[in-house]
Specification:
Radius of gyration: 23 Å
Number of strands: 10
Structural class: alpha+beta
Distance between the termini: 58 Å
Shape: globular
Oligomer: single chain
Largest sheet: 6 strands, mixed
Number of helices: 9
Helix content: 25-40%
Strand content: 5-15%
Length: 279
Amino acid sequence: MSEHLRTALQLAAKGVPVLPLRVGKAPFGNCCACAKNACGGRPNMKQAGPCRCPRPCHAWAAATTDPGTLTSPAWTAAWRQATAIAYHPAGARLTVVDLDHADAIAWAQAHLPPTRTLPTTRGQHWLYAGTMPSSHGVRPGIDIKSRMAYARWLGPGTGTPAALPDIVRALAVKKPATARPTPSSLSVPAPAGGGACPHRTPAYLERGIAMAEQRITDARSAVHATVYRTFLAVLSTHGRCGCLTDTDVVRLFAAAQAKGETARHCTDAWANARARLGL
């Protein structure tokens, strides 16, 4: 039995759901039966939970306290390759405030109540008793890991976990967006020969924009890449003929921002897509 599996079983016996991590602190990839959630497990959805697959293939949702699962042949093979152990904080009724550098630690020391702490490679984990939605980048160098997230197991730490304070909960609340920057007007070449635009029909363009919005909205992972590919597809169809208006672009940006993308990333992705097509 590997040392990681031995530690994992000890944690599971204490009610801490665990899973193995491979090189790079990443979870093991989906098995063939569960690739792209074909098994019905949906780890990125709020209703997610472990699927019936015996393999550790759904990141945080694969975390378990069941010793039978942890020692099954598929999981044993994963533990032999594992370089670290992860756990699901919310499953252990905890929230981890991940402080990535010295400035983040200084902010926490000035604003957050003392609690259990653990050193990381670059900073510290502060553990609080209670659960909340996870959120990345709530402040420079600070992530929150609780529900629908996993954290690396770094040991028991020092101190006693304090009750999850309101100031940490408030960090994950997204403030209402103020005025969003309006994308710059498109400047695209007219059709060759100055002929009428072949796409200049309301139904054709509306269907294309609606499909693009839906594609972004339906993204369950790799949102950055999905947004870029969708922008690229829209521009490849409509970017050279003058169909697109600022209103259309704002709709696409709004769909991306609703998935958590920043206005800056939207602008960069749009610019990169235009550059790729030579627009």
